[in-house]
Amino acid sequence: MKTGDQVVQELPWRWRVQGSIFVVGGLGFMFDAWDVALNGFLIPLVGEEWGLSAAERGWVGTANLIGMAVGAFAWGGVADLVGRQRAFRWTLLMFSLFTVAGAASPDFVTFCVFRFLAGVGLGGCIPVDYALVGEFTPARVRGRVLTAMDIWWPVGATLCGLTSAALLGLGGWRLLMLVMVLPALLVFWVRRSVPESPMYLVRRGRGVEARAVIDDLVARTGAKVDPWRLPEPRPTPRLTPRAVAAQVAALWRHNPRITSAAWGLFLTVFVLYYGALTWLPSILKAEGYGDYAAFMVATLMTAVGILGVVVSAWLVDVVGRKWVIGLSAPLAALALVLFAAQLEIASAAKLWIAAYGFLIQVTIPALYAYVSELYPTELRASGFGWASTVSRVGAGFVPVIFGSVLWPHLGLPLTFAVIGAAVLLAVLWMARAAPETRERDLDSPAV
């Protein structure tokens, strides 16, 4: 007899059922992208208002990204311990409140503190959203759906660029921050209607709730389902520092090769991505572009990424997750090196930054889908969350290090080449250490 979570995994896909959870989860992901992309636009504007040095300007991005690293760790663990649905709502609420506070900051230090706290809230969106959407999605379309989730990222980053360019001169950087908050609060309200993950409920012994959610899914999808059972409940852990530490240990005990591959990929790919995204407007301004022109070229990079996500969502189920990541990530690094090498030739620079924007958005959604499938249900959110934490910690220091050390001393081409070499090493280790997850059952043992 099948278990309830197997029934959920075998249901037909319906846009009005699982698709609505995909949309609601994706909108939160969109604000994550909007906020990260906003760092690149805030750096020149905040720097000019408070007369900041290049190293100080880097803290605009670093404070926010380090906050997201803390949030990815904290909320991934919270989601595994107290439920996806609660964490699903609270992440956006925390982000909204501290973004408003940041827009009212009287000085740079206060601004950085509030950007850090807003990042803590928003950092939980990716691991929580992916865990929840993945656990509602049928296995046969899970790869495409989880990969397509990333389309919300270039959409959010592109909206950020268009909005920032349109509002230039109207209200300064404070207005750019405030325009995010109202729609984020509306999404927070909509998220109240999303049910708890049935896969989470059955593992926490909440059988009545789990059966109600699964029966509702079966009825709404119109599926014909044979009798099924709930698995034996498991003890619910308490949210303590010891429990969180035990989660980390469990990830490495589960499979150290998989965990090291996941962490290596997340770290190198996102150092490459956040380095470019955070500093691109400033790089272009240093090359002589005005604010509007710099913002629009940065927006071109993110807008082309929408096509990259579509291509990635198709390829992951055709050639597999590992091939998509293994080819697109090194090519994205190469495109960024060529952009930096030909920066003085405007047409060539725009061509290569567009190629980079496309390729990196082929890589990232495949990476999200891949890592979210590498762990069993009880470790999925924390496994993804810790990989995201590692990437955000590493990438979080990129704005400061990039502005004060790498760019001034190595130059742009060599800086991006060094990061690209690290990406290539991570891809090679993935090829050897981690399995392909295409069409694999979420809770089947890794091989």
UniProtKB/TrEMBL annotation:
It holds the Pfam family MFS_1. Keywords: Membrane, Transmembrane, Transmembrane helix, Transport. Gene3D superfamilies: MFS general substrate transporter like domains. Residues 21-438 form the Major facilitator superfamily (MFS) profile domain. It comes from Allokutzneria oryzae. SUPFAM superfamilies: MFS general substrate transporter (SSF103473). Signal peptide: none annotated. It is found in: Cell membrane. This is MFS transporter. The chain crosses the membrane at residues 21-46, 58-78, 90-108, 173-190, 261-280, 292-316, 323-345, 351-371, 383-406, 412-431. The keyword Phosphoprotein does not apply. It is a multi-pass membrane protein. InterPro entries: MFS, MFS_dom, MFS_trans_sf, Sugar_transporter_CS. It comes from the Bacteria.
